[in-house]
Design brief:
Chain lengths: ~200, ~325
């Protein structure tokens, strides 16, 4: 079962991954975007960890609502509302339970991804974070580790695509040949899910 | 990297502190990143709020003042501001007559302003929105996010700002803003990529002797790369790209806009070529503005924006304006 503590660990791990990979995300964002994805996400996740350290909400939903609000209020750009909506949409679908099963979490994350797709208007293959998130939720039945692999493959598969949403779409064919920074950061978020589960197992065994 | 900065993290805050010191007629909230005209809210009048990433100065903070914007929300460099900023700005300037959000068509700006509109309406503020999407370099289709909003933002903010100053109601100010956008087209050219403080090196490689056609204002590459051309050849490409997209029946306002690192000597020379092409194509020009207005940090290059006007729009364009970046008639 997953409780508020697990979700706090997830987001803290995600923040550490974003911190570690920020320069790579910004590097990916320079040829097809505006070279700030890493810096923006780092600012947002720093705010998330600070808020969670201060408040430590009691339910999974409350953790995600608080973190989502922080991202919307600090990241800016398209990533802020989209990642904020991902977390808040997932939280809303979880209801007010103190603990949820992995299956319940998987269904909620799918609802979160669907909220992102509605907000951004993006479909699979548009070269956006959806290309990592959707394969990840499809693989969640097989566990968080499978989702991590699927998200990473999804992000890598954006390389040959032509962007149809976001700033890269303005480049048309010239967006081809570059991995999408949004899909890459989305894969980090999913990887953090698997990492924090493995950490949890380590600490209880 | 040679930049006149302290550290990348404080670039926007530092600029706002300096702006506050230079412009006592503005209230600059450095912490919350909102720039408001000091006499706001103006009783009985519609307020205009815009915003977007920093790095496009004087857009948008430089256009706050009588006759133009009531408030502006600067984001991080090239990053949309967050909804909290717009809600705060709307609350500061709303006199009860409502607020028009002027939004450039970039996904981040659109999403954050949409969220802000919902939150502001929850607080009882009447909000209208106009989306600026004037860039002909991006072809509109079902499969893209649509055209970018660039130089026409200045026309929309000035003309709708004048309408608001006259006391016109929100729906009328919104309609005028839409009319200006629908009648505006832009095309931009880069001679050099820009350097963002966060990255510290040019955002894309442009070898000497080449230029990018069809650029936006965020340091992203354009649609096409070509060997370097003369000012006259560039004017032919830019103006013809616009006129291939629409045929003005009335006189136009022309904006010959520098991207940040091109001197006025070159911009005026480029304007001479732009006027030549317009005359050749039979387009009458009512008024021309030349300068750095909608910039992209230290990008070299220029954009051309044309706005087809009628008598009312020309009257509103000529109305007095007093801002840091645009000032006449008062």
């Amino acid at each position: 079962m997953l409780d508020a503590g697990f979700l706090i660990r997830w987001l803290t791990t995600a923040a550490a991954l974003v911190e570690r990979e920020a320069d790579r995300l910004t590097e990916l964002d320079s040829p097809i975007g505006d070279a700030d994805h890493g810096a923006n996400l780092r600012r947002g996740f720093t705010a998330v960890t600070a808020a969670l350290a201060k408040e430590a909400p009691a339910t999974p939903r409350a953790v995600l609502q608080l973190a989502g609000r922080q991202l919307i209020s600090t990241v800016g750009g398209a990533s802020g509302p989209l990642y904020g909506t991902l977390l808040r949409g997932t939280g809303k679908a979880l209801g007010d339970a103190a603990e949820v099963s992995e299956a319940e979490f998987a269904a909620a994350l799918r609802a979160g991804v669907e909220a992102v797709m509605r907000l951004g208007g993006a479909a699979p293959g548009d070269k956006t974070m959806v290309d990592a998130l959707l394969p990840a939720v499809d693989a969640l039945d097989a566990g968080f580790g499978a989702a991590r692999d699927a998200a990473e493959r999804g992000a890598e598969a954006t390389v040959p695509l032509q962007a149809r949403k976001g700033r890269a779409s303005y480049l048309g064919e010239r967006s081809v040949g570059h991995q999408d920074p949004g899909a890459t950061s989305a894969a980090l978020l999913i990887a953090a899910l698997a990492d924090s589960q493995e950490q949890g197992e380590d600490s209880t065994s | 990297m040679r930049m006149l900065i302290n550290v990348p993290e404080t670039v926007v805050a530092d600029a706002l502190r300096g702006m506050a010191a230079a412009h006592p007629e503005l209230v600059v909230d450095v912490e919350n990143r909102v720039i408001v005209r000091r006499d706001a809210p103006v009783a009985g009048k519609v307020a205009l709020v815009s915003g977007g990433g920093s790095g496009h100065e004087p857009l948008h903070g430089g256009f706050v003042g009588p006759g133009m914007l009531s408030a502006a929300c600067p984001g991080e460099v090239f990053t949309s501001p967050v909804p909290d900023q717009m809600v705060r700005a709307a609350a500061a300037v709303d006199s009860g007559a409502g607020v028009l959000f002027v939004v450039k068509n970039y996904t981040g700006d659109v999403l954050n302003f949409e969220m802000a509109a919902e939150l502001a309406e929850d607080e009882g503020i009447q909000i209208a929105k106009v989306l600026v999407d004037d860039d002909v370099a991006v072809t509109d289709s079902l499969y893209t996010a649509g055209r970018r909003g660039t130089g026409a933002t200045l026309f929309v903010e000035k003309i709708a700002g004048a309408a608001a100053d006259e006391g016109q109601p929100l729906e009328r100010v919104e309609a005028i803003a839409r009319q200006v956008n629908e009648n505006s087209r832009s095309f931009g050219v880069a001679l050099n990529a820009c350097t963002t403080p966060a990255k510290g090196s040019p955002t894309f490689d442009l070898p000497p002797g080449e230029l990018e056609l069809g650029i936006g204002i965020h340091g992203e590459p354009g649609r096409e790369r070509r060997p370097m051309m003369t000012s006259g050849e560039i004017a032919d490409v830019a103006v013809n790209a616009i006129l291939d997209d629409f045929t003005p029946r009335n006189p136009v306002l022309a904006l010959v806009n520098g991207m940040g690192a091109t001197p006025l000597l070159e911009l005026y020379g480029f304007n001479a070529e732009v006027q030549r092409v317009l005359a050749q194509r039979g387009v009458a020009v009512a008024h021309t503005l030349v300068g750095n207005y909608v910039t992209s940090l230290d990008m070299a290059g220029a954009s051309v924006t044309l706005c087809q006007i009628d008598e009312e729009l020309l009257r509103l364009w000529k109305a007095p304006v007093s801002t840091a970046g645009l000032r006449w008639g008062m």
